[in-house]
Amino acid sequence: VLDIHRRILRKNSPKAVCFKAIKWLLYRAWSKLSLTERRVLLAAFRQAPVLRKLYFLKNELRNIFEADLSRQEADTLLKDWLAEAKALADDSLNKFVGLVESWKKHILIFFTTRATNGLVEGINNGIKTLKRVAYGFRNFEQFRLRIIVNFLQPL
Q1: Short-list 75, 66, 78, 83, CA closest to 32
Q2: How many other CB atoms are found less than 10 A from the CB of residue 97?
Q3: Other CB atoms within 10 Å distance of the CB of residue 13
Q4: Is the Cβ–Cβ distance between 3 and 23 less than 8 Å?
């Protein structure tokens, strides 16, 4: 959502240099930015207050997931965050809000188990990469064995 908004600002104000080099800064947490990087972002935020609101909303959401919260506490904070996000009435953000609302039950499970599917996603990405470069496999069994060799850790 941040990058979509940044691109729109860049397109509408091509001479405004402040929107050019901030893409990767917008992805980082405020606490992890250097003083110079903060100044660059603040210059962009002076030109686009909505971008500032979106950036700090993103950081608030990140803080919710990084905090050690119970499922009920996370549910309350997530409801407040969603209400605040809806109040901005940004089309791109509303799509994201709808996505979070439709998956909210599953998202809140994270606060119970603190487990993600990152490992599985990484393995799937590796299998897709292997599939792209594995033109020489003559049958599925050879492909399956290669996946096992690449991704299973010894017990």
Answers
A1: 66
A2: 19
A3: 13
A4: yes
Farthest CA pair distance, the chain: 60
**How many residues are given for the chain?**
155
pLDDT (tens, 9 = 90+) of the chain, 155 residues, equals 999 999 999 899 888 888 888 989 999 999 999 999 999 999 999 999 999 999 999 999 999 999 999 999 999 999 999 999 999 988 889 999 999 999 999 999 999 988 888 888 988 998 888 888 877 777 888 888 888 888 876 64
Contacts 24+ apart (CB under 8 A), 54-58: 54/1, 54/2, 54/5, 54/88, 54/90, 54/93, 55/2, 55/26, 55/30, 56/30, 57/81, 57/84, 57/85, 57/88, 57/93, 58/1, 58/2, 58/26
Query: What pTM value is reported for the model?
Result: 0.76
Query: How many Å apart are CA 49 and CA 31, to the nearest integer?
Result: 20
- Contacting residues for 57 by C-beta, under 8 A, at least 6 apart: 81, 84, 85, 88, 93
SS3 21: coil
